[in-house]
Design a protein that fits this description.
3 domains, binds magnesium ion, binds adenosine-5'-diphosphate, Dna Ligase, domain 1, 19 strands, seven-stranded mixed β-sheet, alpha+beta, D-amino Acid Aminotransferase, Chain A, domain 1, Rossmann fold
Length: 362
Amino acid sequence: MKKLKIAILFGGRSTEHEISLLSAQNVVNALDREKYDPVLIGIDRSGQWHYNENSIQLLNIQDAKAISMTQLDNPVVFSQNANDHHLISLSNKENLASIDVIFPVLHGTFGEDGSIQGLAKLANIPCVGCDILSSSIGMDKDIMKRLLRDSNISVAKWHTQRASNPLIKFDQLTPVLGNKLFIKPANLGSSVGVSFADNAKDFDKALKHALEFDSKVIIEEKIKGREIECAILGNRNPKASLPGEVVPKDEFYSFDNKYIDESGAQLIIPAELSKDQIQRIQSLCLQTYELLECKGMARVDIFLEDSGHIVINEINTIPGFTNISMYPKLWEISGINQTELISNLIDLAIADYENQNKLRLC
Ligand SMILES: Nc1ncnc2c1ncn2[C@@H]1O[C@H](COP(=O)(O)OP(=O)(O)O)[C@@H](O)[C@H]1O
Ligand SMILES: [Mg+2]
């Protein structure tokens, strides 16, 4: 059988650029070479695509804030013709590869937010993971929470601050949200721009900091509970993995805890939970996934309160694939190794694409 050419996109114009590089290296290593040929495309910080031959070469691999890609000498464009998908070299106009499926290993803005998914849709090419709608819903924590609240799924109480409105004061929020607050950009990930504040001075600083990253910021009550994550895989009838637990060393699971400090957080895989707790978590995470119209994959992050009550924190539609990342590890202990996982994701993208193409256009 002809091998499919899988365009693995990485880097990108996102504050999570570096994490994407680490994720992509793992995806490439785990890709089943009997079935697929990778076409490696590094996206630099200006958004230019670059063809990478053979492997992803990275610099400063030990420092998650300084990792960078090296092969930036072959700029390419992707032909968006709906019938063929060529990667054209900008230097000599040569057709470098024809692509069968796009696998965006991009986190955050311009990758996880529906924009790459939109490009794939225009080009009429299967794309791994969530579609335009579910990607953008999952990216915007304010919209995501509104949809969940409307279906009576618990989320932390929150206030939405827009950059164009007068800045809310700590004392105005405490009667409703209490005096322990989380301040976060509505559309980001990897804890970039996220702060905790329990006094007016820290709060003002945190709000301004978050507004540097997004024109919409959410301020949430602090939820006291265990941080549990569950991996979901599938289109209609998705499956849930066993849950895992994150135990951050500090007040919260910050960027440094995630990627810089090796002992910043303990990942307990699988989480120590009763059968009943696992069942309730899986069922609520699946409900969340379906309610937010997800396809392909997502990781649902929750808080498990002492009372047993579950509060949904967020959904990540392109979860990390680094070698310490929860999503692939959760599937590993649930019986799907990384190579199978990636093949499943590609199959799901093709199945969804074929279903969509059965629909009448007019
Ligand atoms: N309402 C909350 N209550 C308690 N901890 C929170 C709350 N919101 C965020 N956190 C902490 O901050 C971390 C990052 O916030 P999160 O909403 O997951 O943002 P990101 O999308 O950047 O991962 C969480 O993993 C958790 O440790
Ligand atoms: Mg998170």
